[in-house]
Structure formats: C-alpha cells, structure tokens
Specification:
The chain is an alpha/beta fold. The chain has twelve helices and five strands.
C-alpha cells in the first residue's frame, strides 16, 4: 500500500491517495465491481481538485470578510429588489461580461452584497479579485516607477470578476482618471466589474479631475451594467442604536 500511495502522489492524485484506504474497505464491504470502485475513487480525486481550486481562488480573491447573502438583512433595506440580487447571484452577468454598480450611502450594504456575489462566483469556478479603488490606483501608479505597470494592469485584467470598492470615498489624485480608464476600457465587454460607490453618476465628474475621461469611464460602465441604488439607512447606525458590534 505504501508503494501504491507513493505512485499516486507522484502522479499528483492526492484525492485518491487520501481516500484509498477507506475506499478499499468500503469496496470489500459492498462487493463493488472494478468499474464501481474506479468511479468512486475518480470522484474523490475530482472533488479534491475542486476543493483545492476553490481554496486557491479564494485566497487570490482577497475578500476583506466572509459575508454571505444569507447574512444580509433585506428587511432593513426595502429599497433593494431582492429578485435582482438573486439574478446577480446566478453569476450570469459574469458569463455575459456585464457589470454591477451599487450606489448608496456608507453602511447600506454595498460591500456586503458585493462579497456575497463574489463568494457565489468562486463557488461556480470563476476567478475573483476584490480591491478598493484607492488601493488599485496606488498600486498602478507605484508600478510606473519600476517599469512593472503593464504587468500590474494585467493583474487587474486577469480575474473574471473585479470588485472595485469605495469609489468616491477618498479624493483621487490627478493621475487616477488615466489609470482607472485603462482598467475599465480593457475590461469593457471582456470581463465583469462590480463597483460600489457613494456618489451618484452625476457626481462622478467630482471624483476624477479629467472630465473627458470621466465621461468615457461612465459611458463604458453604464452601457452593460445593472444599476442598484440603495436608499436605506446605515447598518452601522442600526447596530449602534442596539449597542451591538458594528464593525
């Protein structure tokens, strides 16, 4: 058996290697045929590879928290159409290379919903990356100093779903419009973006210094996007009134 397990590891069949002892016992107890036994151990290998793939993609996604849709209180935010959110959770928008824009005041659940969609996307096998807008723009600008700019651009182009959190929460530097447009324009009709923002579209000119690029960014985002506006109160103020944890 040790020799068999060594060969399984050499062939990178860790799923079979980890379950072979239990599966042999089960096969004897149930008098399984060779084909039935083979099907079971191949399923073990398949499940193991899926689990490993999920863990790797989850680590690369850099989600700031684990927030599921089951944890979201829709009764506190009645302005949200739950059917639309459920449609987003199917991740068809990723297959169709469409975008989602969450617009609402701080604390209304935009980031929570984005993370919940991201988790569903990871489960369905998609590659996801979560970043704040300010962090992405800082990284892109810093990459210009060591000639790794295009490598960093490709980093943000690679995932099937890119989540850009907190657009408009911080004042962006003058170079930001160029770099933001670089990412949005190259992902346009090729891969999906989720943007969370506390600014209405009419206020986006206040976010970016370059009005022409601001209009071009807005045009590409809105063209293939589901716009979800949240008009409710802050979950943080709700928890604060209850004396609870509002982190």
């Amino acid at each position: 058996m040790n020799s068999i397990k060594t060969k399984l590891r050499n062939f990178k069949l860790a799923g079979i290697c980890n379950s072979i002892d239990e599966r042999l016992t089960y096969a004897k107890q149930k008098s399984l045929s060779y084909s039935e036994f083979l099907e079971i151990i191949l399923e073990d290998e398949n499940n193991n590879r899926k689990d490993n793939s999920y863990r790797k993609r989850q680590a690369k996604a850099k989600l700031p928290a684990h927030k599921t849709i089951e944890d979201f209180d829709f009764t506190f935010q009645p302005s949200i159409n739950q059917k639309i959110i459920n449609d987003c959770l199917t991740c068809n928008f990723i297959r169709e290379k469409r975008n989602i824009v969450f617009i609402g005041n701080p604390g209304t659940g935009k980031t929570h919903l984005s993370i919940a969609i991201a988790i569903k996307a990871l489960i369905k096998g998609f590659k996801v990356l979560f970043t704040s807008v300010s962090e992405m723009l800082h990284n892109l600008n810093a990459a210009k100093a060591d000639n790794s700019y295009f490598q960093k651009v490709n980093f943000y182009l690679a995932p099937d779903l890119l989540i850009l959190d907190e657009l408009g929460f911080k004042k962006l530097p003058n170079y930001s419009a160029d770099d933001f447009f670089e990412i949005i324009s190259k992902r346009y009709e090729h891969a999906s973006v989720i943007i969370t923002t506390n600014k209405s579209f009419e206020q986006w000119n206040d976010i970016f210094a370059d009005l022409v690029l601001s209009s071009a960014i807005l045009d590409r985002i809105v063209h293939y996007s589901e716009i979800i506006k949240i008009n409710g109160q802050s979950f943080r103020s709700k928890n604060l009134k209850k004396g609870g944890d509002f982190s």
